[in-house]
Design goal:
Rossmann fold, single chain, 14 strands, globular
Length: 441
């Protein structure tokens, strides 16, 4: 019995899934003798299963775009989770978003309750008569939902178990970035595209207007509004005072800034805006509160505007920071798309390996991401050339733990605020190709 092809770090999980696959493969072979699979050529109704977290949904956005380009007349639906459905609801390439009431990616799931949810989800999608299902996670329960839904063609990976339930198995390459890994799921469909993939959370003008109003109330302007963008390679300030993205026809990515425009009127009446995310999905990924206090106070001392972003599950700034009255705490106040609109206007983002880091990548914001030893950065880092990854190497990485078993949590506590501040300074200066008038960044 081979267990090396599974992604699970715990041996008992690898053995259990391997045994399940062995039994399931034998049973499915017998089933296919009596019932031939219905062939599917050009799909008309497609279901994407994405039942995990916010950042994962952002990494799936290039796959949705490729599917829509390849099948413009098809119905593309998404089975999403309560934490990521907003990304898909804002995507014009998605027809309908089905939201699971609960998923097995919750922090403390109930085993029996989840088995019931798998059955309920499978039966609920059966009436939609999908002819193509794609599991972007590589998860045995997600594949089981597709099978229970009666979907004739089911595409996914085998490294999470349930290979016998798939009709098309894609090779899982360990360490490959998640954007490219998910696009590889389209290989069995023969969908090829030469354009570089780009993650995108779609933001509408109403979201941008809401954020503009919040910013103007938080920091009233004292002189005519600025016309030059402070940072953001490949952005320009539009007539409605928000940044608009410019793309290179050859690369499909933001162009390099014009050095001659980096000096004149760069900041105008307002200092630059720093957005921070204090939380993370698991305790093992979180930076210590004392480090956040030290870092943010340095930015405030130098005159930066600081706003805290995050969802309702994140701790408010008052629980983490010593003097939260000197900044704006918008934790749980903005929707996912409004947060992305805010990050479009931010000059710098700092956060851990979590959903807002991927929103910042979508917005094209200059970012410093604090990686723990939980995951491999080359696989999970935000998909943006404007993201700098900082981490402290430890022998136990990657641990894939939700809570660090070590008392001092060395991979995050050893990532000191001074190092983060200096890295942000270098990143800022390199981004501008000159020294900022705001000392010392």
């Amino acid at each position: 019995m081979s267990t090396g092809r599974y992604r699970y770090s715990k041996l008992r999980w690898r053995i259990s899934v391997s045994a399940l696959d062995a039994v399931g493969t034998a049973a499915m072979a017998a089933w296919r003798i009596v019932r031939t699979a219905r062939p599917v050529t050009a799909p008309r109704r497609i279901l994407i299963v994405q039942l995990d977290h916010l950042g994962d949904s952002v990494l799936t956005s290039p796959l949705v775009a490729r599917l829509r380009t390849a099948y413009p007349a098809a119905t593309i639906d998404v089975l999403a989770s309560p934490s990521n459905h907003e990304v898909f609801e804002a995507d014009p390439g998605v027809n309908q978003v089905r939201i699971a009431e609960r998923t097995w990616f919750e922090r403390h799931p109930s085993r029996w309750g989840l088995l019931g949810e798998v059955w309920r989800l499978g039966r609920s999608i059966r009436s939609a008569k999908y002819d193509l299902g794609i599991d972007v996670r590589g998860d045995v329960l997600s594949v089981l939902v597709l099978a229970l839904g009666g979907i004739p063609r089911r595409v996914g990976w085998a490294m999470g178990g349930g290979a016998f339930l798939l009709t098309d198995i894609v090779d899982w390459v360990r360490g490959r970035h998640e954007v490219r890994a998910r696009l590889a799921l389209l290989d069995p469909l023969g969908i090829a595209c030469d354009e570089p993939p780009r993650v995108e959370v779609h933001v509408n003008d109403q979201d941008r207007a809401t954020v503009a109003r919040c910013l103007s109330e938080a920091w009233p302007r004292k002189s005519p509004r600025r016309l030059e963008v402070p940072v953001g390679t490949g952005w320009r300030r539009g007539p409605d005072d928000r940044r608009e993205r410019r793309f290179s026809a050859s690369q499909g990515r933001p162009r390099a800034p014009d050095p001659e425009r980096l000096h004149a009127g760069r900041f105008g009446p307002l200092p630059p805006l720093l957005a921070v995310h204090l939380g993370a999905g698991t305790a093992a990924k979180r930076w210590p509160p004392r480090h956040w206090n030290t870092l943010i106070q340095r930015f405030l001392h130098d005159g930066w505007r600081v706003v805290v972003v995050g969802g309702p599950e994140d701790p408010p700034a008052a629980e983490v920071l010593a003097r939260p009255e000197r900044l704006r705490d918008w934790t749980g106040r903005l929707t996912v798309t409004q947060t992305t609109a805010l990050l479009e206007r931010a000059d710098l983002f700092i956060g851990a390996d979590s959903g807002p880091a991927h929103l910042a990548a979508s917005a094209g914001t200059l970012s410093v991401i604090l990686f723990s030893g939980t995951n491999q950065p080359q696989q999970w880092r935000p998909w943006s050339r404007h993201s700098m990854i900082l981490r402290h190497r430890v022998p136990c990485q990657p641990c894939h733990q939700k809570v660090c078993p070590l008392a001092d949590h060395p991979c995050m506590t050893a990532l000191e605020p001074n190092r983060v501040f200096r890295a942000a300074r270098r990143c800022w200066a390199r981004f501008h190709q000159s020294e900022s008038p705001h000392n010392p960044i």
